[in-house]
Amino acid sequence: MASRVTFIGAGNMAGAIIGGMIDSGFAPDAITATSPSDEMLAPLRDRLGIRTETDNDAAVEQADVVVLAVKPQIMREVCEKMRSAIQARRPLIISVAAGLPAETLEHWLGGELAVVRCMPNTPSLVGAGASGLYANTRVEASQRELATELMEAVGLVEWVDDEALLEAVTAVSGSAPAYFFLMFEAMEEAGASLGLSADTARRLAMQTAYGAAKMAMQSDKTPAELKRNVMSPGGTTERAIEHLEGAGLRRIVQDAMNACAHRASEMADELGKR
Ligand SMILES: NC(=O)C1=CN([C@@H]2O[C@H](COP(=O)(O)OP(=O)(O)OC[C@H]3O[C@@H](n4cnc5c(N)ncnc54)[C@H](OP(=O)(O)O)[C@@H]3O)[C@@H](O)[C@H]2O)C=CC1
Ligand SMILES: O=C(O)[C@@H]1CCC=N1
């Protein structure tokens, strides 16, 4: 029988993963999502045909996998309330919460549980997600495969052996869609200031990013080589790249990603106390 997956929390991230799972062929009636208010759940139920529940305990009763997808700040309360129901069932736990260590989550849920920590990103919604996964020692090979299957349904999966590396994953992919969206905003504004309509500039910028990513993924050339191929000597691209390098783009990116990874570690200290 196919695995039954319950999402605790039905917000941006859960919605993105559920949408991607269904597009890739998961049966909607094997998926349950919970939220305190039915208002959040109705669109998921109506649009995707999944099961919904406002009672977390009831939703984990039949689950083989429980995906924790609430904000880190309320995770402790949510886990502790579900403890008895989780211990009665002992499903595979997959947490997508930033920061919170597997050991802490396991403790909040009553202990002795197989826990996979996953750092996904929102492009999961369109099947183009990128997730970093870490398994605690209780996770069996079949559960690892199940977690891989679930997250591969919505994109690329990379396992890490050291849990601390999920902080780097957060910086490289979990938070990173926002960096590219910021770039789109900046390019749209700059394109508009050069005379294009904002809509035209946005469409051109997005298609270019899509094309560049697709090309880089399909090519055996490095990004540096692909970049050089666009830069005719004495031409326009060279001028733009000189400007970006001169203004310290690499340092800015490094600083931003350091800040992101550092925040993930701070969150573990602030919220992960047992
Ligand atoms: N957004 C992103 O890009 C990424 C997010 N994450 C992680 O995903 C998790 C969720 O983030 P995100 O989806 O953005 O947050 P959202 O606020 O969009 O979703 C959280 C959901 O949890 C619901 N909720 C609140 N209390 C409960 C409860 N007691 N039981 C069940 N559901 C509850 C909320 O309902 P209500 O609104 O009614 O309170 C809301 O629907 C976080 O831990 C975050 O770190 C990880 C990677 C990327
Ligand atoms: O900003 C956040 O905390 C979450 C985790 C990664 C992406 N969004």
Automatic annotation (TrEMBL):
Keyword set includes Transport: no
Keyword list, A-Z: Amino-acid biosynthesis, Cytoplasm, NADP, Oxidoreductase, Proline biosynthesis
Keyword Ubl conjugation applies: no
Catalytic reactions of this protein: L-proline + NAD(+) = (S)-1-pyrroline-5-carboxylate + NADH + 2 H(+); L-proline + NADP(+) = (S)-1-pyrroline-5-carboxylate + NADPH + 2 H(+)
Name of the protein in question: Pyrroline-5-carboxylate reductase
Organism ancestry: Bacteria, Pseudomonadati, Pseudomonadota, Gammaproteobacteria, Oceanospirillales
Subcellular location: Cytoplasm
E.C. code: 1.5.1.2
Principal cellular location given in the protein's record: cytoplasm
Family to which the UniProt record says this protein belongs: Belongs to the pyrroline-5-carboxylate reductase family.
Residue span, Pyrroline-5-carboxylate reductase catalytic N-terminal domain: 4-99
